[in-house]
Amino acid sequence: MQDQEETIKDYIDRMPSLSTTVTKVLQVCNTPNAAPNDLNRVISLDPVLTGQVLKMINSAYYSLPNQISSLTRAIIMLGLNTVKNLALSTAIIGTLGKQESFKSLPMDAFWAHSICVGVTAKLLAAMINVPTAEREEYFVAGMLHDLGKIPLNNCFAETYVQALQLADLEQSALYRSEKLIVGIDHGAAGSLIAKKWQLNDTIVETLSFHHSPERASEKNRKIVAAVALANLYANIYEIGSAGDLYSESQHLLSVLELMGMKWDDLRGLGVTVMSEIEKAQVFLQGVEKG
């Protein structure tokens, strides 16, 4: 079991780094008083990334009234944080969203689940009155929350199938079976990925604690709880699948309490969730199918 954990750590350590451009984007956005031109100068050095960001900005997901051809204009309209998240999600999906990364989990269903969690987390943010400028962070955190499952199903394809089967047999949360059979759960693996790529503490805690949001820091507990609830929503309504078929009732009650919500508050989200999932498909443009 110790060997398997070390194998995962080695695998993550050997994963490619994020591009120099994306690393600089993160550095610029972490700089106090960063200006739109600062971010524009960095992204403009990468024509491919610039094109991808502009394509997403002009997609139905953002529903802007006019086409935008200037990156600076886009940054001014959407804010540094939103454009940073666009660049980040593009880079991560481009790195891990390949068919070869999915040996035990169905790739299309995995990304459908991830997109559902992202859009639902963003809708939940609106319901609890999170400022509009901060809601995109909820989408990205939701979309990336299960990244840790990718190295687990890739490194130990046959063993991971056993973990999936055990969770199904016991009708329990998958992370428990991962810990028991693989030796490390996807929260811990996701944390290792986020730290390798020097992602911010919000993403680190979301990947680590979306099955136990009460363990998140007070600063990030709200967003981690929103992603946890969005994850439960996607699993209960079977929108996509990342292998987690069963939701533990005590966990659901605990997350609802953290969010100050009741399950009935979510029942009217269905049509909007499906509409937003359709718009958000543009984020999967970096996924390479076999």
List keywords for this structure.
single chain; globular; 16 helices; mainly alpha; 290 residues
Give the helices and strands as they follow along the chain.
Answer: HHHHHHHHHHHHHHHH
Helicity range: 55-70%
Structural class: mainly alpha
Note the quaternary state here. Answer: single chain
The share of residues in extended strands comes to under 5%
Number of helices, where a helix is a run of at least 4 consecutive DSSP H or I residues: 16
Shape: globular
The low-confidence runs, each spanning 5 or more residues with pLDDT under 50, are: none
Strand count: 0
Termini, distance in Å?
31 Å
Largest sheet: none
Indicate the mean pLDDT.
90
Radius of gyration: 18 Å
Write the layout of secondary structure elements.
Blueprint: H1 2-14, H2 20-29, H3 36-43, H4 47-57, H5 71-78, H6 80-96, H7 107-127, H8 135-144, H9 149-155, H10 157-170, H11 174-182, H12 186-196, H13 201-209, H14 221-236, H15 249-259, H16 270-280
Report what the structure shows.
There is one protein chain. By secondary structure, the chain is mainly α. 64% of the residues lie in helices and 0% in strands. The protein is built from 16 helices and no strands. The chain is globular. The two termini are 31 Å apart. 44% of the residues are buried.
